[in-house]
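ok posting inputs for the iron/sulfur cluster job
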Amino acid sequence: MGELTKPTSSRVIQAGESGFATTKFNELLAWARKYSLFQYPFVTACCAMEFMATASPRYDVARFGAEAPRFTPRQSDVLWVVGTISQRQAPILKRVYEQMTEPKWVIAFGTCASCGGFYDNYATLAGIDKVVPVDVYIPGCPPRPEAVLDGLLLLQDKIASMDTTPGVVKPRHDPAQNLVNLRRKTEDSAG
Ligand code: SF4
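and the output
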């Protein structure tokens, strides 16, 4: 197979539509890959609680075809690095990544995995991108399951569009927090 090229156009075929569609093999492959992600969870610390919450029925990561874990890197597509990584763990993480076959992707789950978090000391790795390439960073200590799902969707977009630049999950618009802010503002102006 030749070098992968970026798709130039895309169109969704609606239900009941007749006719035919053409596509490129690489685009079809990318579309299939984004919905069949086998994960390898490299879980070390407290972020694990939110990782498990994301897999629960309430958030239902299975909707995105990414629920099945594989406890060997050789059968995995996505390396989820969840939690703090110490300097001693770093070579093991790198080895796990190297054992995964191409194509493969890496998600930095939480602030510690993304940049070391508040562990500014000699024992902690200041971000997993010091030892493995990261495709998506999910900030938060820990990130909420909604942010984790945003990170997964961001990765799927990158896989479908063959975009290899790293992405960061942005804060969500939070209607509940907006209401609180509005109430405080009203109270301040009244008082
Ligand atoms: S980001 Fe926060 S919750 Fe996650 S591992 Fe680090 S300290 Fe724990």
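notes: The mean pLDDT is 88. The CA atoms of residues 144 and 182 lie 23 Å apart.
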